[in-house]
Amino acid sequence: MSEQRKAAPPDPHDFLAVDDSLSDEERDIRDTVRDFAARELRPHVADWFEAGTIPDPRSLAKAFGDLGVFGMHLEGYGCAGASAVEYGLACRELEAVDSGLRSFVSVQGSLAMTAIHKFGSEEQKNHWLPRMAAGEAIGCFGLTEPDSGSDPGSMRTRARRDGSDWVLDGTKMWITNGSIADVAIVWAATDEGIRGFAVPTDTPGFSANLVHKKLSLRASITSELVLDGVRLPGDALLPGSTGLGAPLSCLNEARYGIVWGAAGAARACYEAALEYATTREQFGRPIGGFQLTQRKLADMLVDVNQAGLTAMQIGRLKDQGRCHRNHVSFGKFACVAAAQRVASTARSIHGANGITLEYPVLRHMLNLETVATYEGTEEIHALSLGQAVTGISAFR
């Protein structure tokens, strides 16, 4: 029997060689976004988080536009037409820096731009999408309301016809980019069911109020949208948007990015903890040499690699046209929970240093509290998976 080739030791930063399956083009996108994030985002994000805002969101939007990540998974209208895995890799590398920065990209591309791309008229697509892809116009997505989160069908925002116009009244809450947006995609109940509208934010009666005192997703701009008799021409209606399924399909695109993003946040926390554990000395040796710390690192290693494999498999299914919305629920449910475990454990390894912004772990830990809530709470995704395997709905 010929001598079996000896396997190389696993890479601590990609233990199961998840990225070995990447094509050259996928690897180039990963590296381009990773280099951009390291150069343009990571040096500033702790300060942005501490300040509770992004100081110059217009410049950041232009930089993201130049990078090509806004709506990169869409075809035409200035969009790159990237694959699902390529878009996922971009989300992973952005959220490895901060969830709020990945949210900026997700809301612009997977929510606002996707809604226009899927349901808009040609005039709406040509007017908004090229400028949004370039980062010259910013969009937001108004679905959630103060009393309507997990049950968006109970929304109170109304749109009524008045001659050839539409008049919108209502309030939307927890809207990323709301106060800096040029266009708000607003979902409202009408006599014909739930419909979507492209609302220029300079329309009289539209206002956006910043949400203050957040303890999570602080490197992000979050707003309340108020629509008080907002009068729109008939062509503001997204003609293809009929029923609740329309906004939910956009949310599924955003959730897909979260699957990858959570894997990135988990990786960042694990890598920070590994570096700290191998350099921080107590009792005359690195703390990574103690059994309890090694067990923590082993648990994190498994979570990080399982999250990475989950994201990659769902991305491959999506590129093959085989990704069901329940696959995305599986990914969000599993990857966010894994990232939360990793962030919490990484914080403990850092000891007192773990509560400062000098290290990324508590920032990620706090951000993940929001990630676990938005785009479907953990409980909602658990029920979606339960229904998928039993055929029985537990929602009502």
From TrEMBL:
It comes from the Bacteria. The keyword Transcription regulation does not apply. GO terms for molecular function: fatty-acyl-CoA binding; flavin adenine dinucleotide binding; glutaryl-CoA dehydrogenase activity. Residues 243-389 form the Acyl-CoA dehydrogenase/oxidase C-terminal domain. InterPro entries: Acyl-CoA_DH_CS (IPR006089), Acyl-CoA_Oxase/DH_mid-dom (IPR006091), Acyl-CoA_Oxase/DH_mid-dom_sf (IPR046373), AcylCo_DH-like_C (IPR036250), AcylCo_DH/oxidase_C (IPR009075), AcylCoA_DH/ox_N (IPR013786), AcylCoA_DH/ox_N_sf (IPR037069), AcylCoA_DH/oxidase_NM_dom_sf (IPR009100). GO terms for biological process: fatty acid beta-oxidation using acyl-CoA dehydrogenase; fatty-acyl-CoA biosynthetic process. Its cofactor is FAD. It catalyses: glutaryl-CoA + oxidized [electron-transfer flavoprotein] + 2 H(+) = (2E)-butenoyl-CoA + reduced [electron-transfer flavoprotein] + CO2. Its EC number is 1.3.8.6. Residues 1-16 have a biased composition (Basic and acidic residues). The keyword Oxidoreductase applies. Keywords: FAD, Flavoprotein, Oxidoreductase, Transit peptide. Residues 140-230 form the Acyl-CoA oxidase/dehydrogenase middle domain. It holds the Pfam family Acyl-CoA_dh_M. Residues 23-136 form the Acyl-CoA dehydrogenase/oxidase N-terminal domain. Residues 1-21 are annotated as: Disordered. Belongs to the acyl-CoA dehydrogenase family. This is glutaryl-CoA dehydrogenase (ETF). The lineage of its organism: Bacteria, Bacillati, Actinomycetota, Actinomycetes, Streptosporangiales.
